[in-house]
Amino acid sequence: MFQVPWSEYVPALRDGLVETALFTLVGFAGAVVVGLLLALARLSHLRLLRIPAAIYTEVFKNIPLLAIIFLTYFGLASVGLRLDVFQAGCLSLIIFYGAYLSETFRAAISGIHSGQREAADALGLGSVRTLGDVVLPQALRLALPGTNTMLVDMLKSTSLLVTISAAELMSQGRLIASATFRALEVYLVIAALYFAICYPVSQCLLWLERRIRSGVPLSRRRRRVLREARLLLEATT
């Protein structure tokens, strides 16, 4: 069954995996920033922020990712704004997944009980510290399942960048299939490679989700604060 000389194509597959990882990391980081800003804007009391954020979210949630890829790569070039393949691919992922992550973050922030903000106000914390030290750390636990799903989905969706020859894993598979005329074998191997990447990532994210839900602090600063609080409680009892 396997007649493709895969040893000759290992460098191409390696390069494709690296490109896939780069698209995913840059796209996800940008989507998280865009999604958080949109979520905060939608929760704002100012209609000037809330309405544009809601329009952005609804528009790009209901446009296929492939259409956004074509708009950023071919459409912008037709009006004189030329982006290279990497820029267009990352921008497309950020625009598309930023809209979905904004809904996840908005729901998570809204899920924090109002008593948490009232307690922060009673302690004299400002709005910025209340958001950064009280609301967002708790919202992280609520947003993590949906965010993890979006990360794995984005990793798989980078395969759509084959339409603009982005040199990621699916593009390399298409080139190998064209050179060997063994499409079934090539795409089975490509599918297996995607599974070999996505399954461990999803399991690691699931472990992280369980760890955070159990109350284990992730940052060194929070671990130190928690240890100091325990020592203080032991000293007063």
Radius of gyration: 22 Å
Mean of all residue-level pLDDT scores: 88
Series of H and E elements: HHHHHHHHH
End-to-end Cα distance: 72 Å
* Low-pLDDT stretches: none
The multimeric state of the shown protein is: single chain
- Alpha plus pi helix count: 9
Report the structural category. Answer: mainly alpha
Name the shape in a single word.
flat
Summarize the main sheet: none
Strand proportion: under 5%
Q: Care to count the β-strands?
A: 0
Helix content: over 70%
What does this entry look like structurally?
- The protein is mostly helical and 237 residues long.
- It is 81% helix and 0% strand.
- The chain has nine helices and no strands.
- It has helices at residues 6-42, 47-61, 65-78, 85-110, 114-122, 127-157, 169-180, 183-213, 220-236.
- α4 crosses α6, α6 runs antiparallel to α8 and α7 (169-180) runs antiparallel to α8.
Secondary structure topology:
Elements: H1 6-42, H2 47-61, H3 65-78, H4 85-110, H5 114-122, H6 127-157, H7 169-180, H8 183-213, H9 220-236
List keywords for this structure.
237 residues, mainly alpha, 9 helices, 81% helix, flat
Summarize it.
The protein has 237 residues and is mainly alpha-helical. It is built from nine helices and no strands.
